[in-house]
C-alpha cells in the first residue's frame, strides 16, 4: 500500500525590524508625496498670479488700445454702410474679448484679494459665478473679517472657488450656500448645495471633482475637510487653524 507524502508547511516569519523598516519607508514616502503636493499647489498659485498679471497689464492694455483705434477709425473714416457695419461689429468683438480676458484674469488670481481683501474677493467671485451659471448663491461672511496671512486667504478663496465649480459641473443644484466664519483659533468654511450629491466612492478616496486640491490645501495649513452627500445635496466643511502667534496677536488687538 503506497502512502502519499504531504509536504510540510513552512511558515516564514518576517523579522519585526523589517516590518518597522517597511512602515517607516512608507510613512517617509507619504510625507514626501504630501510635501510635493504642497509645493505644486504653491507653484500653481504663483504661476496663476503671474499669468493673471500678464493678462491684465499686457494683453488687456493691448485690447484697450485696439478698441480705441477702431472707435476712432469709425468716427474719422468716411466709409460706406458695409465697412461701417464691419467696424462696429469689430468694436463689439473687441469689447467682448476684453471682458473675457478680465474674467479669465480674475479667475486665475483675483486682484481684489491683494488690493482690498478676502471679503470683497469672495463677494466678487460669488456675483460673477451667479451671473455666469444662473445658480443662486448666498454668502455669509462678517464684513469686518480680519485680514489673514496671504496663504490662508488664498486657500479660503480657492476652496470656495473649487466647491462652486463642482456644484456647477456636477450637482445640477439651482442654489448654493456658503459660510466663512472666523473663530478664536480657526476658520470654518462650509459650502452646501441641493443637487444630486457625489458618489460615495469619490468621497471615500478624495479623488476627482476637485476634492484632492481642497484637501491638500487644508492639510497644508494643518486643517481638515469633511464631505457629506445623501443624494439630495452635498456639504463640504473645512477647518483651517490659525497659528498661535496670529491668534495671540488678534486677541491682544481686541
Features:
5 strands, five-stranded mixed sheet, 254 residues, alpha+beta, 14% strand
Output the structural class. Answer: alpha+beta
Helical fraction equals 55-70%
Q: What is the count of β-strands?
A: 5
Q: What low-confidence regions span 5 or more consecutive residues with pLDDT below 50?
A: none
Mean residue pLDDT: 80
Q: What gap, in angstroms, lies between the N and C termini?
A: 96 Å
SSE ordering: HHHHEHEEHHEEH
Note the quaternary state here: single chain
Q: Strand portion, in percent?
A: 5-15%
Q: Helical region count?
A: 8
Largest sheet: 5 strands, mixed
Radius of gyration: 27 Å
- Overall body shape: elongated
Strand order of the largest sheet: 1-2-3-5-4
Which SSEs are present, and which pair or pack?
Layout lengths: L15 H61 L4 H28 L2 H5 L2 H16 L2 E6 L8 H22 L3 E8 L3 E8 L6 H6 L5 H10 L3 E6 L4 E8 L2 H10 L1
Parallel strand pairs: 1-2
Antiparallel strand pairs: 2-3, 3-5, 4-5
Helix pairs in contact: 1-2, 1-7, 4-5, 5-7
Description:
There is one protein chain. The chain is an alpha+beta fold and 254 residues long. It has 8 helices and 5 strands, in the order H-H-H-H-E-H-E-E-H-H-E-E-H. A hairpin with a 3-residue loop joins strand 2 and strand 3. Helix 4 (118-133) packs parallel to helix 5 (150-171) and helix 5 packs antiparallel against helix 7 (211-220). Strands 1-2-3-5-4 form a 5-stranded mixed sheet, with helices on one face.
Amino acid at each position: 500500500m503506497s502512502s502519499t507524502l504531504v509536504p510540510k508547511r513552512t511558515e516564514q516569519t518576517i523579522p519585526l525590524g523589517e516590518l518597522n523598516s517597511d512602515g517607516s519607508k512608507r510613512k517617509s514616502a507619504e510625507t514626501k508625496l504630501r510635501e510635493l503636493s504642497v509645493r505644486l499647489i504653491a507653484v500653481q498659485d504663483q504661476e496663476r498670479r503671474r499669468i493673471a498679471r500678464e493678462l491684465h497689464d499686457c494683453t488687456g492694455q493691448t485690447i484697450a488700445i485696439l478698441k480705441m483705434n477702431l472707435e476712432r477709425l469709425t468716427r474719422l473714416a468716411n466709409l460706406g454702410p458695409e465697412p461701417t457695419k464691419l467696424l462696429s461689429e469689430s468694436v463689439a468683438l473687441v469689447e467682448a474679448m476684453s471682458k473675457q480676458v478680465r474674467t479669465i484674469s480674475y479667475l486665475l488670481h483675483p486682484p481684489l484679494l491683494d488690493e482690498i481683501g478676502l471679503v470683497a474677493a469672495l463677494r466678487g467671485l460669488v456675483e460673477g459665478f451667479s451671473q455666469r451659471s444662473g445658480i443662486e448663491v448666498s454668502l455669509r461672511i462678517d464684513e469686518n473679517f480680519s485680514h489673514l496671512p496671504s496663504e490662508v486667504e488664498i486657500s479660503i478663496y480657492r476652496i470656495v472657488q473649487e466647491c462652486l465649480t463642482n456644484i456647477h459641473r456636477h450637482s445640477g443644484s439651482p442654489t448654493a450656500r456658503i459660510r466663512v466664519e472666523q473663530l478664536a483659533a480657526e476658520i470654518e468654511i462650509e459650502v452646501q448645495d441641493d443637487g444630486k450629491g457625489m458618489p460615495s466612492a469619490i468621497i471615500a478616496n478624495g479623488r476627482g471633482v476637485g476634492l484632492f486640491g481642497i484637501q491638500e490645501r487644508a492639510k497644508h495649513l494643518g486643517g481638515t475637510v469633511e464631505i457629506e452627500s445623501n443624494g439630495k445635496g452635498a456639504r463640504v466643511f473645512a477647518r483651517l487653524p490659525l497659528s498661535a502667534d496670529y491668534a495671540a496677536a488678534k486677541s491682544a488687538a481686541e
